[in-house]
Amino acid sequence: MSTVGKVIKCKAAIAWEAGSLFSIEEVEVAPPKEHEIRVKIVATGVCRSDAHAISPSFKEGLFPVILGHEGAGIVESTGPGVTKFKPGDKVIPLYMPQCGQCKFCLSPKTNLCEKISKIKTAISDQDLMPDGTSRFTCKGKQIYHFMGTSTFSEYTVVAETSLVKIDDAAPLEKVCLIGCGFSTGYGAAINTAKVEPGSTCAVFGLGGVGLSAVMGCKVSGASRIFAIDINKDKFSLAKELGATDCLNPQDFKKPIQEVITEMNDGGVDFAIECIGNIAVMNAALECTTVGWGTCVIVGVAVGGQTIAVSPMQLIMGKKINATFFGGWKSIDSVPKLVSDYMAKKFNLDALVTYTLPFEKINKAFDLMCEGKSTRTVLVF
Ligand code: COD
Ligand code: ZN
Ligand code: ZN
């Protein structure tokens, strides 16, 4: 029996309040309105930012909410006015939209889109659909959306500017990582740092994002890639993906930036921070070389903490840059990244430590928080 135009009852993981576990509930998902698409999510990764969003120290979260921003699925139905999608299309929801019309979309200088309206606090943005209402209810309560994607639900509704069609042959339980972690780290190296052949790099934090940055440095031809993490269990995969020197700051008496500066003739060309720790952001800037060193910040510190930078570092030619979704214009780039994966240009499979049934979502968060997984992919 067709579900088109009807409310769908399905399972979703709801975060009822900050700091609580997810509870699997039956939710009602309303049909898509104008310029919206209802998507059957097949697989979703679990990213550190989902944990940030429900952390009690992150003050801007709205509850109850359906999180998840690293998913892949199949179009179930389309709302009025949708022309680019049809039922059965394989798709990736995009937390970074691309409307194609705003001043940012029209500029080659940025991948931001004004449809992420509150750019300053983008993680908590798009808690509702563009018309200011929710498509999710549970136990008579309205449930908030998250980042315009809400992939922790068997069915979700997204705006057409936050969705892209991908290759019909793509394995959704792998390419879902292109929806966030992989693209963010890989793009930080390629698009934002613009790592050059023969250059030296340092990547801080070897989660899914940092390891993807290592892959981006390697594919750009870096000759030396320092990979830094306080969890030494991350090192074997980092080496497999291209790291040449793996360092644990806890193994040294000196600050890690001094260690790297000494090991690499006054510092590296590029440093990429993939943790969201302000002290490490400073270390990343400090370990770059005087003259032209570039530090790229990927992480966002919870609680609105800020970084202090000595102007002297900048006067000495060091640069700070940062990136959101790896600098990729999402609708233009995600299908190409999927094709590149299919052509074996990079190794997403290595990032998937566990594939678990959706109901194990709390286990997936435990594995991430215990440092035992790069990515866990949940399948419906
Ligand atoms: N020194 C070295 N390594 C550290 C330190 C430290 N002080 N603290 C933690 N680490 C290591 C951990 O052991 C871990 O291996 C790694 O850093 C972090 O990995 P994960 O798996 O926790 O995180 P990722 O890779 O999923 O995500 C990292 C982000 C930086 C993207 C994320 O945390 C973040 O800040 N997101 C907000 C910015 C953003 O772009 N959001 C959009 C969607 S993600
Ligand atoms: Zn993410
Ligand atoms: Zn736009």
TrEMBL record:
Coiled coil: none annotated. The lineage of its organism: Eukaryota, Metazoa, Chordata, Craniata, Vertebrata. One of its GO terms (biological process) is formaldehyde catabolic process. SMART domains: PKS_ER (SM00829). Residues 19-378 form the Enoyl reductase (ER) domain. Belongs to the zinc-containing alcohol dehydrogenase family. Class-II subfamily. Its cofactor is Zn(2+). GO terms for molecular function: S-(hydroxymethyl)glutathione dehydrogenase [NAD(P)+] activity; zinc ion binding. Gene3D superfamilies: Medium-chain alcohol dehydrogenases, catalytic domain, NAD(P)-binding Rossmann-like Domain. GO terms for cellular component: cytosol. This is Alcohol dehydrogenase 5 (class III), chi polypeptide. InterPro entries: ADH-like_C, ADH-like_N, ADH_Zn_CS, ER, GroES-like_sf, NAD(P)-bd_dom_sf. Its main location: cytoplasm. It comes from the Eukaryota. The gene is ADH5. Keywords: Acetylation, Cytoplasm, Metal-binding, NAD, Oxidoreductase, Zinc. It is found in: Cytoplasm.
